[in-house]
From TrEMBL:
<feature type="domain" description="Thiamin/hydroxymethyl pyrimidine-binding YkoF putative">
    <location>
        <begin position="148"/>
        <end position="231"/>
    </location>
</feature>
<dbReference type="InterPro" id="IPR029756">
    <property type="entry name" value="MTH1187/YkoF-like"/>
</dbReference>
<dbReference type="InterPro" id="IPR011522">
    <property type="entry name" value="Thiamin/HMP-bd_put_YkoF"/>
</dbReference>
<dbReference type="Pfam" id="PF07615">
    <property type="entry name" value="Ykof"/>
</dbReference>
<feature type="region of interest" description="Disordered">
    <location>
        <begin position="1"/>
        <end position="29"/>
    </location>
</feature>
<protein>
    <submittedName>
        <fullName>YKOF-related protein</fullName>
    </submittedName>
</protein>
Amino acid sequence: MSTQTDRTTTAPAPADAPAPADAPAPAATPDALGVGMRLSLHPHTDDFVGVILGALADVEAAGLTAGLVTETDEVSTYVGARTAPAEQRLAAYLTALVAAASRRSGGGHVVAHVLLSRGCPGEVSCDLAVTGLPDAEPVEVEPTGIRAAAQWSLYPLLDGGSDGGDHMAHIEGAIAAAQRRGVAASPAHYATRLTGDVADVVATAVDAWAQVGTEVPHVVTHLTISVGSPSPAQA
């Protein structure tokens, strides 16, 4: 006598089948999320045009424009990161640009005004309700040997919704992280003061902005970087 075992098999789901209702949303690409910055570079020298154009050429020659889109108008330059690692590309570009401008101006006074934005509003149109927020690895930028002082402000947006949100917790956490990594951070009116190598200052601001962006859909940070200032240095 033979015994037949009843086996139930499940056919594989079609490749285009919808994901289960409780499945996490796929993480947005940098292009879809809208990751980028707007910056203005101001060398305080009569040859400011030569310094700016030379610094831009230096950054391009170093291969740091790969994966970035740049658009310049009479006010500022937009730099959009289209591919990962978006934060690393932006940090490397900004650090190299400020350092190159400082060197081309003979160590003179150079200021950069930077706005970094991560999230849809004002950048691209997307639905963050169905798009996951991607994680961001800490950036790694080679030291430049150039000291910078900066004023830094961080704005977590859209964190409240109907149930409220504690945006100060994100800001305080970012400041604490800056202090832990050795970049001098002290309070100032409407900003936090950062001092250190240009690379460390930029990496501190970018990492904090990106980390908050893994939890808050739209995050903006302002950074004014000054190198070679004639004003007395502060601790």
